[in-house]
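Posted in: Structural Biology > Protein-Ligand Complexes

Title: Requesting predicted complex, histidyl-adenosine monophosphate in pocket

I'd be grateful if someone could produce the 3D structure tokens for the following input. Sequence and ligand are given below.
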Amino acid sequence: MFQRPRGTRDFLPDEMERRRWIEARMRECARRWGYREVCTPAFEELELFTLRSGEAIIQEMYTFRDKGGREMVLRPEVTAPVLRMFVNEGRNIPKPIRWFYFADCFRYERPQKGRYRQFWQFGVELIGADSPRADAEVIALAEAMLRGCGIDFEMQVGHLAPVKHLLSGLPKEVAARVMQLLDKREFPALREYLEETGHPDLYDGLQGLTECRSLQELFEIIGHIEEGEWIQRVCSELDTYGVDYCLNFGIARGLDYYTGTVFEAFAQNLGAENQVLGGGTYRLAHLFGGEDLPSCGFAIGFDRVMVSLGEFRVPRKPAVAVIGMPEVEEYAAAVAKGMRGAGISVVRDTMERSVGSQLSHAAKIAEYAIIVGRKECETNTVTFKNLFSGEQRTLTLQEAIGEVAAHGDRA
Ligand code: HAM
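-- Reply #1 --
Done. Output follows.
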């Protein structure tokens, strides 16, 4: 027997219906904020991701050499592909550009609950806007989208400037490692690393940044910084939007293209892998041959949202099994066609079962059975059976369609 590859999942119909239901909500939310969908290839040239992040990132990706000898990679995220696409195709589109995507991503990670090797992101990119208001719009949209899914979460907003300010005297590799440890919130390892590298005094400041909850506290720790006014304006825009958020200036973000405002959301009911959203402002377009455009975006970890929501029933239209006696096959086919034409979900027997066993199978998979024999064919009617109550009536096709439609969504 074959097993599915490690870190991947199979989705049965109930789960797929839940996923599509939530996806539809996210799409609808994006549409309401004026964002339009884009799609990029599932694989890209490896260099698209190593250009900014260096070769080390190869360890975390699904890379392969294609038959033409090109180094390729299954996309680990969608921001770089979207910016590549913007540089290739979108330069003449009026800015700012509001795009969204729903796509599977691939990372070679150690699988655990909420962490997969193939996972889906619902992401948004606001390209070519450079203002606190743009940052606030993206954060407000992120909040609205997660709220719309019905999960319980905390939105944390920060900015990279305070951390970078504290780390400004450090060699580049040391600062990069500190950012990594901060991102993973590995504080004991951070303290140890700072001691090893001869900067133990930085620990308290960094720790303080993760704990300060007001701008006043922030400025007490780092003094005046150039970006202070920007941070203040983002916060007041967020207040205007009515976004419920808390400040966290310890947010470092795992990907290294971020430049300023950063934000993350955490689901309240998940364990270790509880980050359901991450984003911020970044500059990538110039790396791919375009102008140096500031952008801001986020991606929701769709699978984590689904884990947080757990099992729930998606409203679904009732289904009908059309059961025809062999001698009226054409009439039964016409009845099924008429019902499908009215938008009803109809199944027919494909196993040449007896009417009795068709009915007992129908009771397991449908809400109604429509039984047609010679009598129904001659009078142009159907026998309409409610499979819950057992009640059975003779109706015209139109009446039967009306009955099913009146049932509404099943709970
Ligand atoms: P990211 O934080 O790497 O950001 O990923 C975004 C979200 O994807 C995470 O918050 C998490 O919920 C989910 N995620 C990441 N890895 C996995 C995994 N192995 N299994 C399940 N879920 C996962 C980005 O990817 C950026 N491109 C976001 C962005 C868009 N920044 C600007 N624009």
